[in-house]
Write a structure and sequence with these properties.
Layout lengths: L5 H5 L4 H4 L10 H8 L7 E2 L11 H10 L12 H11 L6 E4 L2 H13 L5 E6 L4 H8 L3 E6 L8 H7 L4 E7 L11 H10 L3 E5 L14 H4 L3 E6 L12 E4 L2 H10 L7 H11 L2 H25 L3 E2 L6 E5 L5 H10 L2 E2 L1 E2 L10 E5 L3 H16 L2
Parallel strand pairs: 1-11, 3-4, 3-5, 5-6, 6-7
Antiparallel strand pairs: 2-8, 7-8, 9-10, 10-13, 12-13
The protein binds pyridoxal-5'-phosphate.
Family: Belongs to the class-II pyridoxal-phosphate-dependent aminotransferase family. Histidinol-phosphate aminotransferase subfamily.
GO molecular function: histidinol-phosphate transaminase activity; pyridoxal phosphate binding
Protein name: Histidinol-phosphate aminotransferase
Length: about 375
Amino acid sequence: MTKKSKEIYASLLKDSVLNVPEYVPGKTTSQIAAAYGLDPNTIIKLNSNENPLGPSKKVIEAIQKEAENASLYPTADASNLRRALTEYTGFPIENIVASGPGMDSLIDALNKLFVGSGDEVIVPVPTFTYYGISAAGLGGVPVHVNLNPDYSLNVDAVLKAVTNKTKIIWLCSPNNPTGNVIAAKDVRKLAEKTNAIIFIDEAYVEFSEAGSLSALVNEFENIVIGRTFSKAFGLAGMRLGYVIAPVWIASALLRVLPPFAVSILAEAAAVAALGDQESLNAAIEMVQSERKKLIASINEKTPYKAYSSEGNFIIADVSPKTSQEAVDAFLRKGIIIRSCDSFQNIGKNTVRITIGTPEVNEKVIEAFEFLKNEE
Ligand SMILES: *Cc1c(COP(=O)(O)O)cnc(C)c1O
């Protein structure tokens, strides 16, 4: 028996798979420590918008307690968690679908419901890149539309990009990486004037003073809200997200998602997190006050420009330095920040920085000073 060459089988791969753009994730602390010879225990990680306060004590206890049930399947549709989310979101269980890994799994599932070969999805950029990557994997065509120069949504440009092949318009509010929110009236206009599904990614909504756009789900049959436990709830490692959707979309999602899409530990952690309003409020209050201080300090004390943000992160234009020079300077100070180069339509001079504790944010200002004084 001779082993056949892989080319024979590789031709079975769908063309769409070969066209999938790469997702560039923020690096982990151990990757950075190894690459730069740093002590992983002293590295400050501000590149993936994780919660610096960590999961709450109640969450850790719930995970430990549930560990002994790890041999058992959870309920197939995560009904305990969805029930807990009815209280948190104000929507009945029929409108809620929870799934892992992360909200990313629901972005994928929504594309799976609507996007096939040659179908288009509209993605206003710069934004979270996974919407287009996921659609491309299904043979879809991401159509990128530029945000306005101040990073607000260009509603008319989006409407102009709509064709009879448009299936989903992917919106993000507060937007990653720019931090700005979308006005309800803009979403209403899109929902009324197109027959596309409109997804609003609210991964950062808890940090926003503008509040949620979720009430629009009751007004329209084509609006879906995406949420995650990765940011305000500090559970990025648990990989859990949910959507608030019209019932017809929620039930279709449950049909295409794998059964048992939420692990028993993730469900226990999330239910405990929802029950710990105090920890959630502490995270939100810290981000809101530190965000304001950090933006003001960058704009007043450094030659660089920080933009306003409703998320747990900010972007800064570090011109005349490049984003890569800024990332390197910060690394030498033991701080990992994110270059925005892998986002479209934001240039090569912008970095994204997660809001940290007051002590950490002082170090961020020092790192900017260090960047400025560098040759
Ligand atoms: C972090 C993030 C997500 C991903 O959430 P997960 O639940 O961790 O998959 C989705 N959208 C945006 C805009 C994000 O920044």
